[in-house]
Amino acid sequence: MLDGNKHQRAVLTSPGFIGETPTALRDGQFYPMAGQRLAFFEQTFAQAEMELFVGVRNPGSFIPKALMALPPEDRAETLANTDISCLSWLTMIEDIRDLAPNVAITLWANEDLPVIFGDIVRAICGLPGETPIENEFALLSSLLDDDGRDRLEELIRPGNSGDRPALLADLSGLFEDHALPHEVEEELDMPGWSTDIVEAFTELYAQDLARLKSMPGIRVLGL
């Protein structure tokens, strides 16, 4: 693939590494073929050190989006054969670790992406943490109201940012207070999918993220 030249790192991107959307909810877990797929990659690139970078998202919004992307008959079959309430990212990650134990895993919460975009790019590219990224906060800026963008420019101005954790905490608060609703809110048009269901999944999602952060061999980027 690299024509015999020596390279330190190759970055391959695809939304289908862990599975396609039609198979995202099957067999009682998210992307049930993810472990087997990564095991295949691990064998294919046996001479290299492999890393997997994946953004996870709140199941309360991911599940209805994945279901409504299916044809009606496939959606009905999935609902009939899958206990939606038990779906968790933990199962998928544990499956990958069991079947592809030498693949290093880095995760982040998709909800944090506008704030930690630069950290994700640096991690994927294997760059030092202090490496500057051009337009690192352009995505975050595009999601803010006018007051938020003004405050963002002040926070990231050279000499004003302070230490990285403090800056990220400030940017997270800024995103929460000044995000444009029409840019960040999603319409979940699945019949019967209520606010109570979303809130229940949100609580479970927070617990899963906390557990993932404590798992050996798993790196979780974020706040």
Structure report:
The protein is mostly helical and 223 residues long. It has ten helices and five strands, in the order ββαβαααβααααααβ. It has helices at 34-44, 59-68, 72-81, 89-99, 113-125, 138-142, 146-156, 164-178, 181-184, 195-214, and strands at 25-26, 29-30, 51-56, 104-109, 218-221. The strands form two sheets. A three-stranded parallel sheet has the order 3-4-5. The protein has a two-stranded antiparallel ribbon with strand order 1-2. A hairpin with a 2-residue loop joins strand 1 (25-26) and strand 2. The radius of gyration is 19 Å and the shape is globular. The two termini are 36 Å apart. The model has no long low-confidence stretch (mean pLDDT 91).
Short description:
The protein is mainly alpha-helical and 223 residues long. It contains 10 helices and 5 strands.
